[in-house]
Write a structure and sequence with these properties.
Blueprint (H helix, E strand, L loop, with lengths): L3 H9 L1 E12 L3 E4 L6 E14 L5 E4 L3 E4 L5 E4 L7 E3 L1 H4 L6 E4 L7 E10 L4 H5 L6 E3 L3 H15 L5 H19 L9 H6 L1 H12 L7 H7 L4 H12 L3 H19 L4 H7 L5 H12 L3 H13 L1
Parallel strand pairs: 1-8, 2-7
Antiparallel strand pairs: 1-9, 2-6, 3-4, 3-5, 3-6, 3-9, 5-10
Helix pairs in contact: 1-5, 4-5, 7-8, 8-9, 11-12
Protein backbone atom coordinates (compact mmCIF):
# COMPACT_ATOMS: atom_id res chain seq x y z
CA UNK A 1 0.00 0.00 0.00
CA UNK A 2 1.27 3.46 -0.91
CA UNK A 3 2.47 5.57 2.03
CA UNK A 4 2.06 9.26 1.08
CA UNK A 5 4.13 10.53 4.02
CA UNK A 6 7.12 8.30 3.17
CA UNK A 7 6.91 9.36 -0.48
CA UNK A 8 6.99 13.05 0.49
CA UNK A 9 9.99 12.58 2.81
CA UNK A 10 11.90 10.59 0.18
CA UNK A 11 11.42 13.31 -2.43
CA UNK A 12 12.72 15.95 0.00
CA UNK A 13 16.13 14.19 0.26
CA UNK A 14 16.97 15.39 3.81
CA UNK A 15 20.68 15.55 4.57
CA UNK A 16 23.31 17.67 6.30
CA UNK A 17 22.54 18.57 9.93
CA UNK A 18 23.65 21.48 12.11
CA UNK A 19 22.84 21.33 15.83
CA UNK A 20 23.67 23.10 19.08
CA UNK A 21 22.83 23.05 22.77
CA UNK A 22 20.86 26.10 23.92
CA UNK A 23 19.96 27.19 27.44
CA UNK A 24 18.36 30.16 29.17
CA UNK A 25 18.12 31.60 32.65
CA UNK A 26 16.46 34.66 34.20
CA UNK A 27 15.29 37.41 31.84
CA UNK A 28 15.96 36.55 28.21
CA UNK A 29 14.34 36.53 24.79
CA UNK A 30 15.75 35.94 21.30
CA UNK A 31 14.22 36.59 17.89
CA UNK A 32 14.92 34.58 14.73
CA UNK A 33 13.66 35.85 11.40
CA UNK A 34 12.19 33.46 8.82
CA UNK A 35 14.94 31.00 7.97
CA UNK A 36 13.53 28.71 5.29
CA UNK A 37 15.47 25.58 6.26
CA UNK A 38 13.66 22.94 8.33
CA UNK A 39 14.48 23.25 12.04
CA UNK A 40 13.92 21.12 15.12
CA UNK A 41 14.15 21.47 18.88
CA UNK A 42 13.99 19.03 21.78
CA UNK A 43 13.44 20.35 25.33
CA UNK A 44 15.86 18.44 27.56
CA UNK A 45 14.94 20.11 30.86
CA UNK A 46 12.92 23.04 32.20
CA UNK A 47 10.49 25.13 30.18
CA UNK A 48 10.25 28.28 28.05
CA UNK A 49 7.85 30.28 25.90
CA UNK A 50 7.72 30.09 22.09
CA UNK A 51 5.91 32.48 19.75
CA UNK A 52 5.94 31.42 16.09
CA UNK A 53 4.70 33.95 13.54
CA UNK A 54 1.13 33.16 12.56
CA UNK A 55 0.54 30.72 15.43
CA UNK A 56 -0.71 30.86 19.01
CA UNK A 57 2.02 31.13 21.71
CA UNK A 58 3.27 27.83 23.12
CA UNK A 59 4.84 26.81 26.40
CA UNK A 60 7.53 24.21 25.76
CA UNK A 61 8.31 21.77 28.56
CA UNK A 62 10.80 18.98 29.17
CA UNK A 63 10.14 16.12 26.77
CA UNK A 64 8.55 18.30 24.08
CA UNK A 65 9.70 18.16 20.48
CA UNK A 66 9.16 20.86 17.86
CA UNK A 67 9.55 20.62 14.09
CA UNK A 68 9.11 23.50 11.60
CA UNK A 69 9.58 22.23 8.02
CA UNK A 70 10.10 25.76 6.61
CA UNK A 71 10.92 27.72 9.82
CA UNK A 72 9.00 31.00 9.81
CA UNK A 73 10.09 33.83 12.11
CA UNK A 74 9.80 33.08 15.82
CA UNK A 75 10.69 34.36 19.29
CA UNK A 76 11.76 32.10 22.15
CA UNK A 77 12.08 33.39 25.72
CA UNK A 78 11.87 32.83 29.43
CA UNK A 79 8.78 33.84 31.39
CA UNK A 80 10.05 37.22 32.61
CA UNK A 81 9.45 40.19 30.24
CA UNK A 82 12.56 40.94 28.13
CA UNK A 83 13.37 42.76 24.89
CA UNK A 84 14.14 40.12 22.21
CA UNK A 85 17.71 39.97 20.97
CA UNK A 86 17.99 39.32 17.22
CA UNK A 87 19.84 36.10 16.38
CA UNK A 88 21.32 34.65 13.19
CA UNK A 89 20.16 31.00 13.09
CA UNK A 90 23.14 29.89 11.01
CA UNK A 91 25.50 31.21 13.68
CA UNK A 92 23.39 29.92 16.54
CA UNK A 93 23.51 26.41 15.09
CA UNK A 94 27.24 26.35 14.38
CA UNK A 95 29.37 23.69 16.07
CA UNK A 96 30.68 24.45 19.50
CA UNK A 97 29.62 24.64 23.12
CA UNK A 98 26.22 25.44 24.51
CA UNK A 99 24.71 28.81 23.62
CA UNK A 100 23.40 30.42 26.83
CA UNK A 101 20.89 33.28 26.97
CA UNK A 102 20.09 35.56 29.89
CA UNK A 103 21.84 35.09 33.23
CA UNK A 104 25.25 33.53 32.58
CA UNK A 105 25.88 32.11 36.04
CA UNK A 106 23.97 29.63 38.16
CA UNK A 107 21.40 27.01 37.18
CA UNK A 108 19.45 27.28 33.94
CA UNK A 109 15.67 27.49 33.59
CA UNK A 110 15.61 25.57 30.33
CA UNK A 111 17.99 23.48 28.26
CA UNK A 112 17.30 22.68 24.61
CA UNK A 113 18.95 20.82 21.78
CA UNK A 114 18.07 22.62 18.57
CA UNK A 115 19.27 22.87 15.03
CA UNK A 116 18.39 22.62 11.39
CA UNK A 117 19.01 20.45 8.37
CA UNK A 118 18.81 20.92 4.62
CA UNK A 119 16.76 19.28 1.90
CA UNK A 120 18.61 18.13 -1.21
CA UNK A 121 15.55 18.39 -3.43
CA UNK A 122 15.56 21.38 -5.81
CA UNK A 123 11.81 21.43 -5.31
CA UNK A 124 11.76 21.39 -1.51
CA UNK A 125 9.51 24.46 -1.19
CA UNK A 126 6.73 22.86 -3.21
CA UNK A 127 6.88 19.59 -1.29
CA UNK A 128 7.20 21.29 2.12
CA UNK A 129 4.01 23.20 1.32
CA UNK A 130 2.20 19.86 1.67
CA UNK A 131 3.36 19.57 5.31
CA UNK A 132 2.11 21.47 8.37
CA UNK A 133 4.05 24.63 9.26
CA UNK A 134 4.48 23.61 12.87
CA UNK A 135 4.56 20.20 14.58
CA UNK A 136 4.55 20.21 18.39
CA UNK A 137 4.85 16.74 19.95
CA UNK A 138 4.56 16.01 23.66
CA UNK A 139 5.29 12.82 25.56
CA UNK A 140 7.37 11.04 22.89
CA UNK A 141 10.77 10.28 24.49
CA UNK A 142 11.88 8.46 21.31
CA UNK A 143 12.16 11.85 19.58
CA UNK A 144 14.53 13.24 22.22
CA UNK A 145 16.68 10.12 21.88
CA UNK A 146 16.74 10.51 18.09
CA UNK A 147 17.74 14.18 18.37
CA UNK A 148 20.61 13.31 20.75
CA UNK A 149 21.87 10.62 18.38
CA UNK A 150 21.55 13.01 15.45
CA UNK A 151 23.56 15.70 17.28
CA UNK A 152 26.30 13.20 18.19
CA UNK A 153 26.60 12.00 14.60
CA UNK A 154 26.65 15.58 13.28
CA UNK A 155 29.59 16.46 15.56
CA UNK A 156 31.69 13.49 14.48
CA UNK A 157 33.57 13.09 11.19
CA UNK A 158 33.31 9.34 10.93
CA UNK A 159 33.17 7.35 7.69
CA UNK A 160 29.71 7.28 6.18
CA UNK A 161 28.65 10.37 8.14
CA UNK A 162 26.52 11.97 5.41
CA UNK A 163 24.69 8.74 4.60
CA UNK A 164 23.97 8.09 8.28
CA UNK A 165 22.78 11.67 8.81
CA UNK A 166 20.46 11.46 5.84
CA UNK A 167 18.88 8.23 7.08
CA UNK A 168 18.59 9.53 10.66
CA UNK A 169 16.91 12.75 9.52
CA UNK A 170 14.44 10.73 7.45
CA UNK A 171 13.59 8.67 10.55
CA UNK A 172 13.32 11.79 12.72
CA UNK A 173 11.05 13.52 10.21
CA UNK A 174 8.71 10.55 9.82
CA UNK A 175 8.59 9.90 13.57
CA UNK A 176 7.86 13.57 14.31
CA UNK A 177 5.29 13.97 11.58
CA UNK A 178 3.35 10.83 12.38
CA UNK A 179 3.48 11.66 16.11
CA UNK A 180 2.00 15.06 15.24
CA UNK A 181 -0.82 13.58 13.20
CA UNK A 182 -4.28 14.36 14.53
CA UNK A 183 -7.18 16.76 14.48
CA UNK A 184 -5.11 19.29 16.43
CA UNK A 185 -2.33 19.40 13.82
CA UNK A 186 -2.08 22.49 11.67
CA UNK A 187 -3.55 22.16 8.13
CA UNK A 188 -1.45 19.97 5.86
CA UNK A 189 -0.89 16.43 4.72
CA UNK A 190 -0.83 15.11 8.30
CA UNK A 191 -4.35 16.24 9.11
CA UNK A 192 -5.55 14.78 5.85
CA UNK A 193 -3.96 11.41 6.65
CA UNK A 194 -5.45 11.50 10.16
CA UNK A 195 -8.93 11.59 8.64
CA UNK A 196 -9.79 8.03 7.56
CA UNK A 197 -12.01 9.17 4.69
CA UNK A 198 -9.63 11.80 3.35
CA UNK A 199 -6.72 9.39 3.78
CA UNK A 200 -8.38 6.96 1.38
CA UNK A 201 -8.57 9.62 -1.34
CA UNK A 202 -5.01 10.88 -0.69
CA UNK A 203 -3.63 7.35 -0.93
CA UNK A 204 -5.39 6.84 -4.26
CA UNK A 205 -3.93 10.09 -5.63
CA UNK A 206 -0.46 8.89 -4.64
CA UNK A 207 -1.02 5.35 -5.94
CA UNK A 208 -2.26 6.52 -9.34
CA UNK A 209 -1.13 10.11 -10.07
CA UNK A 210 -1.53 9.48 -13.81
CA UNK A 211 -5.23 8.69 -13.51
CA UNK A 212 -7.58 11.37 -14.84
CA UNK A 213 -9.13 12.03 -11.45
CA UNK A 214 -12.27 14.12 -11.11
CA UNK A 215 -13.68 15.63 -7.94
CA UNK A 216 -16.55 13.15 -8.06
CA UNK A 217 -14.21 10.16 -8.27
CA UNK A 218 -12.07 11.35 -5.36
CA UNK A 219 -15.17 12.10 -3.28
CA UNK A 220 -16.36 8.54 -3.99
CA UNK A 221 -13.01 7.16 -2.73
CA UNK A 222 -13.64 9.10 0.48
CA UNK A 223 -17.27 7.95 0.66
CA UNK A 224 -18.42 11.58 0.81
CA UNK A 225 -20.56 13.84 -1.30
CA UNK A 226 -18.68 16.13 -3.68
CA UNK A 227 -19.34 19.27 -1.62
CA UNK A 228 -18.62 17.60 1.73
CA UNK A 229 -15.35 16.15 0.38
CA UNK A 230 -14.22 19.49 -1.04
CA UNK A 231 -14.89 21.37 2.20
CA UNK A 232 -13.43 18.68 4.47
CA UNK A 233 -10.30 18.25 2.37
CA UNK A 234 -9.70 22.00 2.00
CA UNK A 235 -10.09 22.56 5.74
CA UNK A 236 -7.81 19.67 6.75
CA UNK A 237 -5.08 19.89 4.10
CA UNK A 238 -5.18 23.64 3.58
CA UNK A 239 -5.69 23.51 -0.19
CA UNK A 240 -8.49 22.08 -2.39
CA UNK A 241 -8.24 18.44 -3.56
CA UNK A 242 -7.44 19.16 -7.20
CA UNK A 243 -4.81 21.73 -6.20
CA UNK A 244 -3.18 19.10 -3.98
CA UNK A 245 -3.24 16.63 -6.88
CA UNK A 246 -1.55 19.12 -9.21
CA UNK A 247 1.08 19.95 -6.55
CA UNK A 248 1.86 16.25 -6.12
CA UNK A 249 2.04 15.67 -9.87
CA UNK A 250 4.43 18.61 -10.28
CA UNK A 251 6.62 17.32 -7.43
CA UNK A 252 6.83 13.94 -9.15
CA UNK A 253 7.51 15.57 -12.52
CA UNK A 254 10.34 17.65 -11.10
CA UNK A 255 11.89 14.55 -9.55
CA UNK A 256 11.71 12.68 -12.87
CA UNK A 257 13.24 15.67 -14.70
CA UNK A 258 15.97 15.97 -12.07
CA UNK A 259 16.87 12.30 -12.42
CA UNK A 260 16.49 12.44 -16.22
CA UNK A 261 14.65 9.15 -15.84
CA UNK A 262 12.71 9.48 -19.08
CA UNK A 263 11.79 11.82 -21.94
CA UNK A 264 9.31 14.66 -21.72
CA UNK A 265 6.44 12.68 -23.26
CA UNK A 266 6.87 9.86 -20.74
CA UNK A 267 7.11 12.32 -17.83
CA UNK A 268 3.81 13.83 -19.01
CA UNK A 269 2.19 10.40 -19.19
CA UNK A 270 3.45 9.34 -15.76
CA UNK A 271 1.95 12.39 -14.06
CA UNK A 272 -1.42 12.35 -15.78
CA UNK A 273 -1.19 14.54 -18.89
CA UNK A 274 -2.35 13.41 -22.31
CA UNK A 275 0.53 15.04 -24.23
CA UNK A 276 3.89 16.70 -23.74
CA UNK A 277 2.45 20.06 -24.82
CA UNK A 278 -0.42 19.89 -22.29
CA UNK A 279 2.04 18.94 -19.58
CA UNK A 280 4.44 21.72 -20.61
CA UNK A 281 1.66 24.31 -20.33
CA UNK A 282 0.61 23.07 -16.87
CA UNK A 283 4.22 22.83 -15.67
CA UNK A 284 5.04 26.35 -16.87
CA UNK A 285 1.96 27.74 -15.14
CA UNK A 286 2.79 25.99 -11.86
CA UNK A 287 6.58 26.29 -11.81
CA UNK A 288 7.18 29.46 -13.80
CA UNK A 289 9.27 27.96 -16.59
CA UNK A 290 8.89 25.17 -19.20
CA UNK A 291 10.01 21.67 -18.15
CA UNK A 292 12.79 21.54 -20.76
CA UNK A 293 14.32 24.74 -19.41
CA UNK A 294 13.91 23.49 -15.85
CA UNK A 295 15.76 20.28 -16.72
CA UNK A 296 18.57 22.18 -18.48
CA UNK A 297 18.98 24.48 -15.48
CA UNK A 298 19.29 21.48 -13.16
CA UNK A 299 21.84 19.82 -15.44
CA UNK A 300 23.88 23.05 -15.55
CA UNK A 301 23.79 23.37 -11.75
CA UNK A 302 24.97 19.77 -11.30
CA UNK A 303 27.81 20.22 -13.81
CA UNK A 304 29.00 23.49 -12.21
Amino acid sequence: MTDPLSEVISLLQPGTVFSKGISGAGKWAVRYEAFGHPSFCAVLEGSCRLMVDGHEPLVLQAGDFLLMPATPGFTISGFEPARPKKMDPSVAASPGGELRHGRQEGPVDVRLLGGYFVFGSPDAALIVSLLPQLVHVQGEPRLSVLVRLLAEEAREQRAGRELVLGRMVEILLIEALRSGTGAGASPGLLRGLADARLCAAIRRMHEAPAQAWTMEQLAKEAALSRSAFFERFSRAVGIPPMEYLVAWRMALAKDLLRRRACGLAEVAERVGYSSASTFSTAFSRHVGQPPARFARALATAVAA
